């Protein structure tokens, strides 16, 4: 009986998550496009719903809500479904969408999408070979095989995003890095931009008049030249068309310049807005946060290096260690069991919420930057795939932040994975990503002021 | 060559609706082979015969300024775009017939371009919402063009065309629906070509022949008279 109640609670929450994913899709991601294929939206919302259910089960584990056996059952079921989605459904549908866009292969699109999916599976399987992620007692077709590979991809993604985020966050928050931009700088650039546009226009006017005279004299070629046409034009080249190609080359160079100037001007406007923002209350608050985060970032890089160099994996989670410190060194006595449960709930809850929110914001930014009306479906599906893998690996890594008694369920459900490997891999990729972000931001920052110092 | 007079026409619309293809078709009578992202603004020039076939025929340059981007861009990009909206004589609004959002965004596009000149006078600063009065007062000729007509299935055509007719009515503008990859839609003598020619003629008229020698376009006049009193010169 309690199993039925538990299941109905789970299903209700899953429907809620599904609705939230649906709304997010419509309001945020696709707000400038028209949704033509609802399947895409459904797939995205379903992936989101099942990923969030996993986090929900962790919270339930800590709080002790629901029956333990029904929790275990739902864990297993949820895991199977999510793996099914991530390994079978979404990649197949991505292949199908890509193939449908190509007109040549439209007739046999099912066949080609199956082929694409098989290629994906091959590489996915091969991914597991160089990593020591499995103990030899697992069979070929087990959940552990799939989870381990999904985990590798997801952990790599998490570490890359973490590393970049840890460095970028203080860089954007702190006003120390803001370049000084005045109104005269902006006006000067705008003037250059308009001058370039005027030059382009005058050249295009010459070309238009030249084309018109050629057309009136019956010399112009309106269709693209065939093979014989090209041979003929070598022998009898009209002087008008030669001039045109020369001017066209000049125009191309000027257009490239105008694009550069446009981007630089937009950059200057953005910096000016940030300078104004940093003078407000909110801006000052974020500036202060930026200093705090930069210290945090340096500490994290330091810890990652220590972990790798000394081959150390943390055995205790931060909650228990914090409680130990307070009890042993500060002499404050309190009910360990009670407090460890609540504190780990809050800590894990914060980690979950910030990682979901951070991922959704990053996905939205990515989507706006690279999508167009043609490719929006494929990109959303790719984002759903990334999101699913990200959340699965978060579950893997979050295990380290929980006290021992709550870790067992994750260990049981996910099987005998080499969890230490994943933490080591996370540290390595995090270090690489953070250091290369520092290098990249340094180069970008260095190069920018010189660009608009030239009069 | 450079002695011909010029008018400036903006081509506005969402990303990917086909503005670059349209401009290429209008100026070079050829289909654009490899459309790519427009960063910033790309300009092309069309040589137009004003009042063709009559004794008053004169040739003008029509500069078509194809401004790239989306209505939801960051405000820094919008401020940069605003530099292209100076002294505009006509606006072509382009939307994609297969994408309803692009048609709805046309209201915001037109407000962005028109507000650029309204704000300095202190007249009617809106929050981006559509306001019929502003369009009634507008002096700049508008033209609405719907693209990708070939991708609309026969059965849906009537519904789509009714919707776009309402849209054009809201803007008090003519409308054309075509496919930018097929030059026959703008073939000489077709009704579309006539509409475009009439639109350009109207732009040239408003720029050069309604000021009686005063070469400054309409907005400084509005500044002097405090808005709205130029309705007597409003022809349609």
TrEMBL record, chain A:
It is found in: Membrane. The chain crosses the membrane at residues 6-26, 38-63, 75-98, 110-127, 147-169, 288-310, 343-368, 380-402, 422-444. Residues 277-446 form the Abscisic acid G-protein coupled receptor-like domain. One of its GO terms (cellular component) is Golgi cisterna membrane. The keyword Transmembrane helix applies. GO terms for biological process: intracellular pH reduction; skin development; T cell differentiation. The keyword Transferase does not apply. Keywords: Membrane, Transmembrane, Transmembrane helix. One of its GO terms (molecular function) is voltage-gated monoatomic anion channel activity. It is a multi-pass membrane protein. Residues 142-207 form the Golgi pH regulator conserved domain. Signal peptide: none annotated. It catalyses: iodide(out) = iodide(in); bromide(in) = bromide(out); fluoride(in) = fluoride(out). Belongs to the Golgi pH regulator (TC 1.A.38) family. This is Golgi pH regulator. It comes from Sciurus vulgaris (Eurasian red squirrel).
Automatic annotation (TrEMBL), chain B:
Pfam families: Roc. Signal peptide: none annotated. One of its GO terms (biological process) is natural killer cell differentiation. This is Rab-like protein 3. One of its GO terms (molecular function) is protein homodimerization activity. It comes from Sciurus vulgaris (Eurasian red squirrel). Keywords: GTP-binding, Nucleotide-binding. Homodimer. Interacts with GPR89; the interaction stabilizes GPR89. Interacts with RAP1GDS1. Belongs to the small GTPase superfamily. Rab family. Required for KRAS signaling regulation and modulation of cell proliferation. Regulator of KRAS prenylation, and probably prenylation of other small GTPases. Required for lymphocyte development and function. Not required for myeloid cell development. The gene is RABL3. Gene3D superfamilies: P-loop containing nucleotide triphosphate hydrolases (3.40.50.300).
């Amino acid at each position: 009986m309690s199993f039925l109640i538990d299941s109905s609670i789970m299903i209700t929450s899953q429907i809620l998550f599904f609705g939230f994913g649906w709304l997010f899709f419509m309001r945020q991601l696709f707000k400038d496009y028209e949704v033509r294929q609802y399947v895409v939206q459904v797939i995205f919302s379903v992936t989101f719903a099942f990923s969030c259910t996993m986090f929900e089960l962790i919270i339930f584990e800590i709080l002790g809500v629901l029956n333990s056996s029904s929790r275990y059952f739902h864990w297993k079921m949820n895991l199977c479904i999510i793996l099914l989605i991530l390994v079978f459904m979404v990649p197949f549908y991505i292949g199908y969408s890509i193939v449908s866009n190509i007109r040549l292969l439209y007739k046999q699109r099912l066949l080609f999408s199956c082929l694409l999916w098989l290629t994906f599976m091959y590489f996915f399987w091969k991914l597991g070979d160089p990593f020591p992620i499995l103990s030899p007692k697992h069979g070929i077709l087990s959940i552990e095989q799939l989870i381990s590979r999904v985990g590798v991809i997801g952990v790599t993604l998490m570490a890359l995003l973490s590393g970049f985020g840890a460095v970028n966050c203080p860089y954007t928050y702190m006003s120390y890095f803001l370049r000084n931009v005045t109104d005269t700088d902006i006006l000067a650039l705008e003037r250059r931009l308009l001058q370039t546009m005027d030059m382009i226009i005058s050249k295009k006017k010459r070309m238009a008049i030249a084309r018109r005279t050629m057309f009136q004299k019956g010399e112009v070629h309106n269709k693209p030249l065939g093979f014989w046409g090209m041979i003929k034009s070598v022998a009898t080249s009209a002087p008008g068309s030669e001039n045109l190609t020369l001017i066209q080359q000049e125009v191309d160079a000027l257009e490239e310049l105008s694009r550069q100037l446009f981007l630089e001007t937009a950059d200057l406007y953005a910096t000016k807005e940030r300078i104004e923002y940093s003078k407000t209350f909110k801006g000052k608050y974020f500036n202060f946060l930026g200093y705090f985060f930069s210290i945090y970032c340096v500490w994290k890089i330091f810890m990652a290096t220590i972990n790798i160099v000394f081959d150390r994996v943390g055995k205790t989670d931060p909650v228990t260690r914090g409680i130990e410190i307070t009890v042993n060194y500060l002499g404050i006595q309190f009910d360990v069991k009670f407090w460890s449960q609540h504190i780990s709930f809050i800590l894990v809850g914060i980690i979950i919420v910030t990682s979901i929110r951070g991922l959704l914001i990053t996905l939205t930014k990515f989507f706006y930057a690279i999508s167009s009306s043609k490719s929006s479906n494929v990109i959303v599906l790719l984002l759903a795939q990334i999101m699913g893998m990200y959340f699965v690996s978060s579950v893997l890594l979050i295990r380290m932040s929980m006290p021992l008694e709550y870790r067992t369920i994750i260990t049981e459900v996910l099987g005998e994975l080499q969890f230490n490997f994943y933490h080591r891999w996370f540290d390595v990729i995090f270090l690489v990503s953070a250091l290369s972000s520092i290098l990249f931001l340094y180069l970008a920052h260095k190069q920018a002021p010189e660009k608009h110092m030239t009069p | 060559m450079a002695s011909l007079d010029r008018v400036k026409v903006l081509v506005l619309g969402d990303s990917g609706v086909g503005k670059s293809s349209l401009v290429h078709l209008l100026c070079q009578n050829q289909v654009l082979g490899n459309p790519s992202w427009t960063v910033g603004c790309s300009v092309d020039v069309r040589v137009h015969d004003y009042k063709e076939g009559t004794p008053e025929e004169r040739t003008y340059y029509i500069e078509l300024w194809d401004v790239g981007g989306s209505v939801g861009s960051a405000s820094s990009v919008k401020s940069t775009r605003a530099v292209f909206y100076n002294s505009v004589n006509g606006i072509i609004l382009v939307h994609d017939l297969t994408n309803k959002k692009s048609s709805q965004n046309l209201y915001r596009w037109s407000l962005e371009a028109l507000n650029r000149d309204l704000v300095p006078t202190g007249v009617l600063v809106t929050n981006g919402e559509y306001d019929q009065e502003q369009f009634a007062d507008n002096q700049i000729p508008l033209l609405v063009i719907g693209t990708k007509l070939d991708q609309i299935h026969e059965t849906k055509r009537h519904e789509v065309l009714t919707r776009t007719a309402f849209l054009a009515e809201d803007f008090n503008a003519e409308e054309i629906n075509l496919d930018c990859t097929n030059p026959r839609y703008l073939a000489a003598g077709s009704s579309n070509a006539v509409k475009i020619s009439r639109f350009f003629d109207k732009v040239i008229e408003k720029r050069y022949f309604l000021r009686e020698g005063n070469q400054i376009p309409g907005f400084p006049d509005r500044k002097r008279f405090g808005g709205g009193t130029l309705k007597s010169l409003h022809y349609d």
